[in-house]
Each structure stands twice: as structure tokens, then as C-alpha cells.
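Progress note, sequence design subtask.
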């Protein structure tokens, strides 16, 4: 019987050869499907509701009664999320190189911008001009923003926990892969919002 020398087998991988990599990918497939369902509900309601968004009726001058969501804060937040991709990418590369200092530096900046986006998201709810229970339009747009906010919080908590472990104990292949998987999640969170932003904020102005 031949014996296999397992000493030559790598102790870990920092890319798609890691099991957690594929687990994270399948998770993102599920989460993408969830957002696709929310988009389908939004478009279904749009098809059956006229006008869209429905008019505001609480009284006041025309600019106050405009039902379209305000663009300033949401656009700033979109910009913040896009800028956050830069340190996230650099943290990903540093983790791949097992660079302890670089990983922590760029991850801290990525996390900081992420928390700025969280704060701005709460102002985005006000920019919608409706409370969540006023009508079907309000309910679906609040749901889209709220679910996406939950994903921002999840990735920040996940990435932050890994960063604390790396800061206290150093970086090894296992936790470098954890960090890389978190950055992929971050890419996905930003990417989904790039697609959802025009749906929520621009589409009501054109159709």
C-alpha cells in the first residue's frame, strides 16, 4: 500500500480553493435573489400604481409636496460607498500578501467609510418623504433601503471582528482568507447599491 506524503499539501489557500470562499459565493447568490425579489415587487407595484410615487397630501407649497425622493444625501452616500471600494481593494491585496500593517490600515479606512454610509442611510430614509406605512410605494422603498442597510452592517461587523483578531494575534492564512471574503462581500454590497440607487431615486423621475 502506498503512503501519501501529506507534508506537501498546503495548509491553507487565500483564494477560490478555500471552502469558505465558495460558501460566501453561494451566500451572495441567495442574497442577490432576495434583492431581485424586492425589485420585482417594486416594478409590479409601479405597473399597477398611477401616479408613481403617489402624491403627498399633507399640505404645503409644491416643493414640499414633491413625492420624488430627494437626491442630495443619497447621491453623497453613493459616492461614499464607491470611494470605500479603494481601501477595501487595498485591504484585500494586503491580506493576500499577509501584510499585517497594510491590512489593518486599509481595513480601518474601509470600515470608517462604511460607518459614514450607515449614518447617511438614516438621513436617506427622511429623503424618501414618506414614512414606511403611508402607502405601498413607501413600504417597498423603505424595505429596499432597510435590507441593504442590514447588509452594510453585517459586512462591517464581520470585517471589524476579523480586523480585531488580526490586530491582536497577527495575520495567518486562515484569517487572511476571512478578510478577503469580507472584502468580496463589501464589493457586493456596493455593487448592489449601484444598481438599486437608480431604481429608487432616478426611475420615479422618468417613468
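Output:
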Amino acid at each position: 500500500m502506498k503512503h501519501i506524503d501529506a507534508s506537501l499539501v498546503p495548509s491553507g489557500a487565500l483564494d477560490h480553493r478555500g471552502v469558505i470562499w465558495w460558501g460566501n459565493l453561494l451566500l451572495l447568490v441567495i442574497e442577490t435573489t432576495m434583492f431581485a425579489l424586492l425589485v420585482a415587487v417594486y416594478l409590479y407595484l409601479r405597473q399597477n400604481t398611477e401616479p408613481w410615487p403617489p402624491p403627498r397630501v399633507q399640505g404645503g407649497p409644491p416643493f414640499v409636496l414633491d413625492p420624488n425622493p430627494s437626491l442630495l444625501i443619497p447621491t453623497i452616500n453613493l459616492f461614499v460607498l464607491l470611494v470605500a471600494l479603494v481601501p477595501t481593494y487595498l485591504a484585500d491585496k494586503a491580506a493576500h500578501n499577509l501584510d499585517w500593517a497594510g491590512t489593518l490600515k486599509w481595513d480601518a479606512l474601509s470600515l470608517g467609510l462604511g460607518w459614514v454610509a450607515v449614518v447617511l442611510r438614516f438621513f436617506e430614509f427622511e429623503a424618501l418623504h414618506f414614512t414606511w406605512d403611508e402607502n405601498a410605494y413607501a413600504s417597498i422603498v423603505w424595505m429596499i433601503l432597510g435590507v441593504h442597510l442590514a447588509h452594510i452592517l453585517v459586512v462591517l461587523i464581520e470585517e471589524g471582528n476579523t480586523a480585531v483578531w488580526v490586530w491582536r494575534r497577527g495575520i495567518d492564512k486562515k484569517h487572511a482568507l476571512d478578510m478577503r471574503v469580507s472584502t468580496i462581500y463589501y464589493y457586493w454590497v456596493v455593487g448592489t447599491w449601484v444598481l438599486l440607487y437608480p431604481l429608487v431615486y432616478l426611475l420615479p423621475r422618468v417613468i
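The first helix runs from residue 19 to 47. Work on this subtask will continue into the next period as scheduled.
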